[in-house]
Amino acid sequence: MAAGRHSLKIGEWHVYADTCTLSAANGAEQTKITPRSMDVLVYLAENAGAVISATELLDKFWQGTISSDHAVHKAIAELRAAFGDDAHKPKYIKTVPKRGYSLVADVIPHGEVTRISEDKTNWWHGASIGNSLKFTTTLGAAAVVLVILAWSDIDLALNQDNDISLAILPFSQDGDVDSSKQFFVDGLSESLITGLSKLSQLKISSPAYERELNPRRQSVQEYGQRLGVEHLLEGSVQYLGDRARVTVQLIRVEDGVHQYSEQFDLDKQDIFQIQDEIVANVVTSLSIHLDENQRSQMRDWGTSNAIAFERFMKGEFYNNQFNPKDFELAIENHLAAIDQDPNFINAYLGVVSAANNYAVYSGVEKIQELSQLIDEMHREVARLDASHAALDSIRAIQLRINGNDYRLQESSLREEILAGNAPEFALAHYALFLIGARLYDEAEQFLDVADEVDPFQISPDEIWDYRHMVALPQDMVELRKQQLLERPNHTGMLGAVARNLVLLGRHEEAQAYMERQRLSDTVGISSNFTSIVAGVLTGSMLPGSEQLQQQYALGRNFNFNNGALSFMLGDIEKGIEFWSNLPTVHKRRLINNAHISEVYFAESVVDDQRYQELLEQLDFGISWQHTLMEGVIAMQPVTGIGLSAEARQAYESQQFMSRNNLWTDSQWATIRKFRMLHQDSLQANTN
């Protein structure tokens, strides 16, 4: 890649600000980062060697839109992941505790490096917002950070400059002493020594020597000095009926200050399981507490409870795997974080995000359960902070997950955009409406001007994903494969790749992705849709066959799939029957999947008056399409986006636009050719 006007070399990486690209000096590796993270990087490069506070970065590039500087931490995390940098042994970006960040690598301009404009909006919507892969990289970088945080267990590094010495006192029993459980109390100390000794740079004194001393007869300073340590960890166990309460305290020897205190209440169960859980919690909590960087991030996320933070980060990791089983684990871990810290707002938002994603793949009963959970989370967030910015996002998710009130959402978004106070997700959400109504051209333009959502910031919309919805099948395969490198078990992406591979005639390759989707989709609705598309395109799913009858008998959770299957086979009446009885909560599937399904429908189905009347009956037909066209026209003075010539003609002539207006006639002809590749025609099979 040639050096651009906005380019420089940082360490062993070439940085191209105009395209938000980092390229290894040897040319072997290239990665994209979000525009805002590039803003931060260029600013750090302009001030190389200086310490820049998180507050300064927040004020400069987020303009006060985010109250916590955890957004800055996430940008730094993305940059470190892109550079392959280690926060504990930094070669590029160094964290200066309690002060900020400093770029420590050599900076060499390739040419003129223009200072970042004070108007971050122009930069934000400028050079690289149109690249459809950039947010995939963002998520990948953030996922790396999550993996480190969630799964490193007790191998987190502590203070990088000095070892920390710690003595663990024998635990005591408080209240009524139970001699039968003394072995458990004694074992806690020894297990903690074993567990904590695995923390790098933490020196633990010998338990044998500790038992020779009696801390109750000495001051903390005297006791610590005799052991030659900087910190003491003491604990006690108290039995309360069927529960065991374990209290742990960390004391600084120098002045006797209690630096850390935590209480663990555990149900009565297998005593060794209790012991293992206590040790795991204490080790996790101390590893975070004693690490300045981790403790700072924990507080920025909104909690001072290390166990809650650890559960939350695991929940975020699972949520970003995007399959039903992991969504369950995400909700479970976020709720566990809330149990540890009921004031941890981001944990409530984590539940909402996971529940919203889970609902995409779920049946009616599960969606209703998830909807109730989201309602509960909304009430709790409103109770904790009635003006919290995420309440708008949660409200949008509540409406969407229930499968109704789309017109209310459209009207609200339009008003907010026209008033200039729309939430960040507004343009992206309107783009999703446009995609579902086959207005691909207008949708792509909306995505071009929509704000990217920071990694793991709650939002009902994801721009990076919506862009791939409007891609041609042959392009979509490669784009989705790139995403699967970051999320290998993403149920939806696996299905998209498999279906389009079948359409392109690459059956053997498609089978591998279909099997992967089947394994990741524990609910089965999404993988079933892929299997019926493959069955029709290959001619194995035929009218009158036993396989078809078994499919039709699956029940109401499969009404969308069965309706789409009927339309693929050219059986319009049967398709109308299924979609007319679509559960309300599954109307969301019409926006997400109807326009995708129509690519595989038998010839002339979409143009059939009966099909169009069905869509109108479901309120996703010509009236809905023209409402969105009117919205685009009304918002044009604000967005600068107008209707395409094809959409304008359909609107003025009051006709239904039955295919998307982004793909050309020749591209549609190619898709038709692919569809008919392995059979004379879908109509012939129907006959």
Summarize the structure in words.
There is one protein chain. This protein is α+β, with helices and mostly antiparallel strands and 687 residues long. It folds into five domains: 7-149, Arc Repressor Mutant, subunit A; 164-283, 3-Layer(aba) Sandwich (Rossmann fold), CATH 3.40.50.10070; 306-402, Serine Threonine Protein Phosphatase 5, Tetratricopeptide repeat (Alpha Horseshoe), CATH 1.25.40.10; 403-470 and 622-655, no CATH class; 471-619 and 661-686. It is built from 32 helices and 13 strands. Strands 8, 9, 10, 11, 12 and 13 form a six-stranded mixed sheet that branches. A five-stranded antiparallel sheet has the order 4-3-2-1-7. It has a two-stranded antiparallel sheet with strand order 5-6. The radius of gyration is 29 Å and the shape is globular. It starts with 6 loop residues before the first strand and ends with a helix. The model is unreliable at 1-5, 112-161, 454-461 and 681-687 (pLDDT under 50).
Bin the strand percentage: 5-15%
Q: What's the mean pLDDT score?
A: 80
**Number of DSSP helices?**
32
Provide the gyration radius in Å.
Answer: 29 Å
* Fraction in helix: 55-70%
Low-pLDDT stretches are 1-5, 112-161, 454-461, 681-687
N-to-C CA distance = 55 Å
Provide the descriptors you would attach to this structure in a database record.
globular, Arc Repressor Mutant, subunit A, five-stranded antiparallel sheet, 687 residues, six-stranded mixed sheet, single chain, disordered C terminus, 5 domains, alpha+beta, Rossmann fold, Serine Threonine Protein Phosphatase 5, Tetratricopeptide repeat
